[in-house]
Amino acid sequence: MRPAHLPFEVKFTNPSGWVGLSHVFGAQKHLQARWRNSLPFLTPTLVESFSGSRASASVNNPSPVFYVHATESASLYPTFAPEMIQLLRLKVKSDRRELAVSKGMTIFTFATVPPSSLFVPLAARRLSPTLIEVKPRHPLPPGQYLITIGAQEYDGFDFEIECGHVTKL
């Protein structure tokens, strides 16, 4: 059940029933240097950190299906649309998970979107005015992931994929 103060919830099903993903917020932002010595016109990348090295929800299926549910009023927001949902891969750094929230900057440009290498291709479709189905287009490798909705300040719903892929010999 969604906490009353949150407009969205994300759930998936497993053998024991429906599981809700935790809504996580970035713990801090910091700059990460990028080749400054060899390319002096580049400035650092902005990185958002999330507490803990693992998500609280673990998925044992490399091709999970998630359901994003919105309140009646939140479903009217322009950001609650299938094309506004993103699935991103987080990088684990000892006691935290990180997401680059800029492509890096030059003295001429600043792009406040994650690098394309962090986006996971997904299929999202509206099932009702308040419900969207989200699934990755390809099986996910083990790791930490974040589902974001709209143009949020990189908060979202986190999960981890635990299972490995079976390799045929």
Please name the defining characteristics of this protein.
disordered C terminus; five-stranded antiparallel β-sheet; 169 residues; mainly beta; eight-stranded mixed β-sheet
Give structural notes.
The protein is mainly beta and 169 residues long. It is 0% helix and 46% strand. It has no helices and 15 strands. The protein has strands at 8-14, 17-20, 22-24, 28-32, 42-43, 45-51, 58-59, 66-70, 85-93, 96-100, 105-106, 122-128, 131-136, 143-149, 156-161. The strands form 3 sheets. Strands 3, 4, 6, 7, 9, 10, 14 and 15 form an 8-stranded mixed beta sheet that branches. The N and C termini lie far apart (44 Å). The model is unreliable at 165-169 (pLDDT under 50).
Element layout with pairings:
Elements: E1 8-14, E2 17-20, E3 22-24, E4 28-32, E5 42-43, E6 45-51, E7 58-59, E8 66-70, E9 85-93, E10 96-100, E11 105-106, E12 122-128, E13 131-136, E14 143-149, E15 156-161
Parallel strand pairs: 7-15
Antiparallel strand pairs: 1-2, 1-8, 3-15, 4-6, 5-11, 6-10, 8-13, 9-10, 9-14, 12-13, 14-15
